[in-house]
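Co-fold these.
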Amino acid sequence: MPGSLILVDLSTNLGRRQFANPVFVASGTFGYGFEVERLADISKLGAIVTKSVTLEPRTGNPPPRIVETTGGMINSIGLANVGVERYISDYLPQLQGGGADFIMNIAGSTSDEYLKVLEKVEAISTDIAGYEINISCPNVSEGGMEFGVSADQTARLTRRLRKRTERLLIMKLSPNVTDITAIGLAAQDNGADAVSAINTLVGMSIDINSQRPDIYRTLGGLSGPAIKPVGIASVYKLARKLSIPIIGIGGITSAEDVIEYTLAGASAVQIGTANFRDPACGINIINDLRSRLEDSNIDRYQSLIGQVKTYQ
Amino acid sequence: MPGSLILVDLSTNLGRRQFANPVFVASGTFGYGFEVERLADISKLGAIVTKSVTLEPRTGNPPPRIVETTGGMINSIGLANVGVERYISDYLPQLQGGGADFIMNIAGSTSDEYLKVLEKVEAISTDIAGYEINISCPNVSEGGMEFGVSADQTARLTRRLRKRTERLLIMKLSPNVTDITAIGLAAQDNGADAVSAINTLVGMSIDINSQRPDIYRTLGGLSGPAIKPVGIASVYKLARKLSIPIIGIGGITSAEDVIEYTLAGASAVQIGTANFRDPACGINIINDLRSRLEDSNIDRYQSLIGQVKTYQ
Amino acid sequence: MKQIDALIVANRQLAHQIWQMELAAPDLADDITGPGQFIEILISASWEKPLRRPMSIAGYTDGKLTIIYKIFGPSSHQLSQRAAGDYLSIMGPLGNTFTINNQLFPILIGGGVGLAPVWWLHRKLEAAGTAHALILGARSGEEHFIESQPDKNILLTTDDGSAGIAGTVLVPLPAILANNPNSMVFSCGPEPMLRAIQEFTADKQLPAQLSVESYMACGLGICQGCAIKTDGARNKPFSLVCTDGPVFDAGELDFG
Amino acid sequence: MKQIDALIVANRQLAHQIWQMELAAPDLADDITGPGQFIEILISASWEKPLRRPMSIAGYTDGKLTIIYKIFGPSSHQLSQRAAGDYLSIMGPLGNTFTINNQLFPILIGGGVGLAPVWWLHRKLEAAGTAHALILGARSGEEHFIESQPDKNILLTTDDGSAGIAGTVLVPLPAILANNPNSMVFSCGPEPMLRAIQEFTADKQLPAQLSVESYMACGLGICQGCAIKTDGARNKPFSLVCTDGPVFDAGELDFG
Ligand SMILES: Cc1cc2nc3c(=O)[nH]c(=O)nc-3n(C[C@H](O)[C@H](O)[C@H](O)COP(=O)(O)OP(=O)(O)OC[C@H]3O[C@@H](n4cnc5c(N)ncnc54)[C@H](O)[C@@H]3O)c2cc1C
Ligand SMILES: Cc1cc2nc3c(=O)[nH]c(=O)nc-3n(C[C@H](O)[C@H](O)[C@H](O)COP(=O)(O)OP(=O)(O)OC[C@H]3O[C@@H](n4cnc5c(N)ncnc54)[C@H](O)[C@@H]3O)c2cc1C
Ligand SMILES: Cc1cc2nc3c(=O)[nH]c(=O)nc-3n(C[C@H](O)[C@H](O)[C@H](O)COP(=O)(O)O)c2cc1C
Ligand SMILES: Cc1cc2nc3c(=O)[nH]c(=O)nc-3n(C[C@H](O)[C@H](O)[C@H](O)COP(=O)(O)O)c2cc1C
Ligand code: FES
Ligand code: FES
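Predicted complex below.
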């Protein structure tokens, strides 16, 4: 309604933790947060999920690491990151001054590795909001199958991590499975506060002139608007089976996309690939979301969660 | 090379069957073939895969059935088709006169249903090239899980069908699984001559104004250029494990895409969604493919199969 | 039916958000059968939006095909940016046509962007000297591109009363019917309007033909994507807008 | 570094497939540090291609930023279709710069589309009255947009000999070096050319800075997508072209 003076409450809850708004930025697509400070007021973001941190520093995969596809991109960065020690010494201090809530994304190749990273952060005093666990990593001690494709391994990893933190614990689900809800339930039943979905789809492309893969590691992760329908479907399926909150990810570029994920069942969302095109897009999306809800006379963002009206 | 007079051999083999060229049209995206006759010389196509036929006629799902997405579309047609009796009486005669090789795609909700459809066609005299089995159908006698997500069910269905035909038997694989190669191996080990990959990805979208799903059945199948990287990755993974030929499907719009699938390991391809934009695109792609190979002095299409040069 | 690259002869704004494009399409002449038929337009070479957009034919004279379209989303906006001299890939003509019954007085009703086929029918009847009525509805006067001529039974309505008769296209209908009790309605427009006309004509036992819309992928009867419910008089639960329609007897349609 | 909508002041063809665009970008003035820096351009609002395209800055004067680009694929073609008066979303300036050593005679070498930063450096040295040599290479004469001026040490080469010196950019190098033994090479161009220069300069123990390319997603050091191998002199296996580069000492680079 033009001229309406309704004050929209954009806040949302994940477990016991409240966030100022539901628009987060996704791991690996916003660095450690402050890289974008010159371009946008990042303190306005619902939360910043920092890039995957591992126990040891990692230099990442050999190039080429990225390629564009229709409506998306493939990446295989290989978890290049500074390692948990430098994360704590160099980055946490800056993050804490930044004003935005932040969530630390953790990756590992054994469950001990995940545990150690988390324990090191738990051991210090920090105002980190919680952890997102990237389980799309090959589990080297279990034969190289990704943690995230096995409900059992997801269950075990969640259980072990849960014992070590009171903070928000989010398991980030892979879409490359027959039944994502089985993995989501394993996370929920073992103490996760929330799940986020989806990580990238396994994808590949080939340069037909050189006959080489466009990505050094041959296979990579597909992200961007192309995968949004898979993300929406995943969130919808999870929402019907799980009782914990879901963070929707995949191809978000607009406030309309945020609402779509929310109707499907998301309590918050993360923006990934779109940050590369416009690092300030998260802020614009928050403003657009507020106006859109105002215009529709919706005074609480949370009232939209899971409200899709199916035909059947 | 300009002026080169090399004669490119586009023919390809699936099992014992040879096809004039590797560019087929995908089930459900070209009707029964002759609908497009006014627009293109369909006899030039490598093969026409007709839309899924079931034992009984099906009216399909209530509308809305399709929606556009970034770089793709979602459909849930519900296997609307005339049933095998009318396929035999009304369509087969026309198909046989059409000049193109054709492959019958079969769907069912129990394995008996698949069997009966196939048996009815085997019982008559026809020059059908073979069968493509759409296993992305819920198996009602096994609790509604899709045939295509279970290696066991795929194995059983393949074995039973194999016993009833000498013709080309192609199992069409779903990408909505943790490990597509396990399903592919089940098909191969039980007598399939080839596999085709991929069928559509599970996807969903919501009209945020009406808050309704864009598709009556809520979830549908995502197709189009958006999914090409998933198709390429699937074919590549299958090619490394299987020894039978693979038909590549997913997001093909150009001769370049055909070459990409071929390098990844496909012996032939199928064009789906792109037919809706240009029903003559298959013919154009065949011509472009010929020129491209000519220009690169490649005299046999088949010499490209699986030739991707990975870095590692 | 053909797929051609048609030369854009003209592309201009008719009214607020309403545009008209004229295309050179002499090759389609043999297949043109009349109002109701549509074409499938490839708006852009980009694959961001893979599908063509259906647009009703609003006229076909001397090999020139006209469409009238509304700026609705990004695609129709892009269409309005195309310049005369460019080429546009179109496929058509597709679909069936309105069928005039010589015994009945034709009442043509077009709403919003759905006026294209009705407009063409109007021009044809006019050219043939066939008496008929034309009612065009819009939200406000700025969306109309002709003047009302009540003496010639050309009536405009607007929801906001800013031009012509205030209210929906149904308002002037009783008066026309009073003068022409043996009438038949031909209409195209937004679904709520078609629903209202379906109800009205059923009530009055007036025959009516409605041209309906649906999302389309192929336009050729192949994808089965454009199905609508027709569990009215027709003997099947669903019909395809692209090949069974877009024109249906009002009684067949089930707007749910 | 900022993200702005820059007004297109001019966009014109310089040579075969080579275009130049001038953008009003006064807001970037404070961050401009010199040749080597680049911007990230959003070519189209369509999400068919989600990523921006990096383009080197070919000049910056009075708040006007110039790029020189080659029609390579659909995106650069689209860029050439943009008209003066339109706005273009750009992000920048990004990346590091060439570093002139006052003790050494600068030899600038640009190949193909990689001439933009070299061109800017040339203009700067020219303006400062600093003696230097400029070698521009192309496949054939139609791709060159200036004349050679051997007296001023401005030399053109073409692979096909259709203009300037026949052969690669390496052909005139020994003669220049003979006159200027204490030189340093600054170059940008296609990878095979950079490889050749790397080899040549290593051989002759000449210092050289090379501006390299890589696919980019963010341009900001965030995505780690633009990594290249730098297991040469540098102490790390990979470097980021967008933030560690695009200019590297020739010795650092490992072209594999
Ligand atoms: C038989 C027929 C005749 C028509 N005649 C006219 C006419 O004469 N004049 C006129 O203005 N309009 C006509 N239309 C409607 C016209 O096709 C729509 O306006 C157009 O498709 C959507 O507008 P847009 O392209 O600008 O919006 P877009 O921005 O392209 O679409 C908005 C959104 O709508 C959805 N959408 C649009 N089209 C489709 C599709 N085909 N399939 C699935 N989803 C889709 C997508 O989600 C899309 O993102 C007709 C439609 C039919 C079926
Ligand atoms: C630092 C730097 C400076 C540059 N300066 C210039 C310059 O001054 N002038 C100039 O002409 N060019 C310059 N380039 C190269 C320019 O960015 C490329 O020409 C352009 O990205 C590809 O051309 P296109 O957009 O027309 O082709 P497109 O048709 O858009 O691309 C062809 C294909 O290449 C691939 N591709 C292209 N860009 C990317 C990407 N960013 N990530 C992944 N895949 C991609 C995609 O598969 C795409 O389909 C520079 C590049 C870098 C890194
Ligand atoms: C370049 C790139 C790097 C990424 N790195 C990580 C990562 O380190 N950890 C992680 O959990 N997800 C990572 N992701 C996945 C994203 O967080 C997100 O789940 C995915 O991209 C889907 O969202 P989008 O479609 O909005 O990009 C990365 C994605 C991209 C494109
Ligand atoms: C509208 C539509 C209908 C389809 N119907 C069938 C079908 O009946 N049987 C089948 O096996 N696959 C069907 N498919 C899947 C296609 O054959 C193909 O596997 C898929 O669309 C991926 O290819 P594409 O990206 O080129 O479209 C259908 C796809 C679409 C878009
Ligand atoms: S649009 Fe494909 S059947 Fe009608
Ligand atoms: S382009 Fe993203 S880190 Fe360089």
